[in-house]
Description:
Layout: H1 2-29, H2 33-44, H3 50-63, H4 82-86, E1 103-104, E2 109-116, E3 121-125, E4 128-131, H5 132-136, H6 153-160, E5 166-175, E6 182-184, E7 189-191, E8 193-197, E9 208-212, E10 220-224, E11 232-234, E12 254-257, E13 259-260, E14 263-264, E15 266-268, E16 273-277, E17 281-290, E18 294-295, E19 302-303, E20 308-311
Antiparallel strand pairs: 1-20, 2-5, 2-19, 3-4, 5-17, 6-16, 7-15, 8-9, 8-12, 9-10, 10-17, 11-16, 13-14, 18-20
Amino acid sequence: xxxxxxxxxxxxxxxxxxxxxxxxxxxxxxxxxxxxxxxxxxxxxxxxxxxxxxxxxxxxxxxxxxxxxxxxxxxxxxxxxxxxxxxxxxxxxxxxxxxxxxxxxxxxxxxxxxxxxxxxxxxxxxxxxxxxxxxxxxxxxxxxxxxxxxxxxxxxxxxxxxxxxxxxxxxxxxxxxxxxxxxxxxxxxxxxxxxxxxxxxxxxxxxxxxxxxxxxxxxxxxxxxxxxxxxxxxxxxxxxxxxxxxxxxxxxxxxxxxxxxxxxxxxxxxxxxxxxxxxxxxxxxxxxxxxxxxxxxxxxxxxxxxxxxxxxxxxxxx
Length: 318
């Protein structure tokens, strides 16, 4: 009886939490977030008078504990605006890309969550969960599925796993406002597919950009823009524009193939420069690996790009 009462109480608490979360998200979505984001982006890129750059950008450095000693150019007077400082480059040699591990951190940041994806569910940020199907979208790049839009969460989960006996894992890295805001390749892979979700620019799951298909089976690398400044730039895809007034809601998905010369896909090596954010953002990696795959990080741990995330003798990334 006591156990039954405990389960009922737990279900009621979960229901109240979900109801409260839905109300919060609904209220948040009523705010003019895209207008706010573009307005902030305009301010962010206003050229500052040289005399004002050191005090204004210096205040930002102090507030968010930026590691100015790691910047390729530590002289704040040389940054025309805050946007340039957000996208600053690092000095050569201040980061080392681990050569032994197949999967390394794509960015400087903090580990929000990691682990196995269960029952078609991705736990992304602070206990908020998403279905893999809702997060990644339909499996249109798979040619062996008749109806990609009508898969159940469990069916979708199984279709993502390309080898029997493997699991789907995920790792979420959050970039704080003071972090280095360029991001890098997390593995050796070949990108052939991109998907862009315009989103609502929510601080939990705003604008999405996704690359698919690696040279070790497949690999998912999702860059999530932040509230206020949702713009994301991917260096190998100059046609992509994010946080645009004509993009509309999340259902207005934009897919594209990545082609280099006459070849399908573009190859990247681990640690290669990949793209950049404006202000704090999140990167979500989803990958397939054997069941004995072990993460080398802990929740809440600070990481630098190139630092190992996990290891197995043979890792198949999704």
